[in-house]
């Protein structure tokens, strides 16, 4: 059977689905807008279905577009694999979109990208920073080909590979009344004012799970996405927060923050690579995951 559609047409379809715009898809693919529009029209005519609903300049997938997208994505992916398969590992080249949660983006990803640049200079990595739920959503929506998240992902469409562990700690300012206590009880935590990460953040999910059934009524005054905001609020005020060790260790060493000893809470967590189960066997993705695992094993990145 002779296929009437082309990989170029599928790439155009995927780019429009990703950007929501013909003009942005054209820019992404280095094509003219007219060529991009023509390729998409030819594909829709050949399939006999509308793949997008037009809302002004924005494009939204129809039911058929949603059905086609993972299949088109896999064909594009397989074509890339054929091309890459003719090169030795040290000549791996191409682009990959990486999404990382905040802690990983600040403390792990820079070293990871630096190592990749040294060993695989032809790989180009674009980076997006979101909370854990945002990274999972981005991987499912093809915004990211590879993600780094905190904690677990139970979605069957996602493959998860743990590559390191760290832990969360309760922090207070040096002038906070609890800072002088050898131990802090759950009852004292319940009486405190808290500033925390937003719901959907891996840090918040792990903290909520740790206190579930132990602290029935937590007094949460503020919720923010950015860790530096929470650190400053705690250091300057009478709040407590729960943050990753990596995000506060320097501030503890400088005496700006104090780690509270709460024996009843154990908040170890994992950091994992995630990718769509249907998009396995990607040499660029495999290369980055192997480098990440090697980096953790060879250096004392997480204590």
Automatic annotation (TrEMBL):
InterPro entries: LysR_HTH_N, LysR_subst-bd, WH-like_DNA-bd_sf, WH_DNA-bd_sf. GO terms for molecular function: DNA-binding transcription factor activity; transcription cis-regulatory region binding. Residues 5-62 form the HTH lysR-type domain. It comes from the Bacteria. Gene3D superfamilies: Periplasmic binding protein-like II, Winged helix-like DNA-binding domain superfamily/Winged helix DNA-binding domain. Belongs to the LysR transcriptional regulatory family. This is Transcriptional regulator, LysR family. It comes from Aliivibrio fischeri (strain ATCC 700601 / ES114).
